[in-house]
Design brief:
Elements (H helix, E strand, L loop, with lengths): L6 H20 L3 H17 L10 H21 L8 H6 L9 H18 L4 H12 L4 H8 L3 H35 L1
Amino acid sequence: MHPQKTFRQVYIITSLPLRKFISKKLGRDQQLVDDIFQETMLAAYKGWDGFEHKSKYLTWMCRIALNKIADYYRRNIHNGSRIVVPIIDDLDSLLVTQLTPEEEMYTLEIRNRVLACMELLPDEYKNVLKLRYFKHYSYQKIASIIGGSERSIEGKIYRAKKSLKDILSTYREKQVFATVESRNS
């Protein structure tokens, strides 16, 4: 049996890979990545004595980070959050067995909001996103279903994600405006 490491040792070992993990999940918003990283480390520090060594340190911290990311979206989705398109890549990749009932509920809530915004897309974009991200079809399979080359499908998916991001940004602006209006009333 290996001697247990101190939190400081684990912090040094896991900081860089954990930051990369969080950055991959959240995209290029460095301030948000830093905030989630700090919240993750604080939660890990507070829970250090309760760590049961059933997984590797990094695995444990990545799970905490995923919970903190979910917390972020849960807190901000009701305040007109910008739901970034990269999250669509991960919505169905989370295994239900990995989630607590509360996490499963919030993941479903986010998915439903994304789907509602997707309904505002042209059918062509809506269909390629659903085939790619909810049915997990390859570009080749999508091309065989709707016609066209794999390259054209990649382009459609790129444009569909950009359009969805624009719709989500508009949704956020409307939510923020509605919130400000209700406060002023």
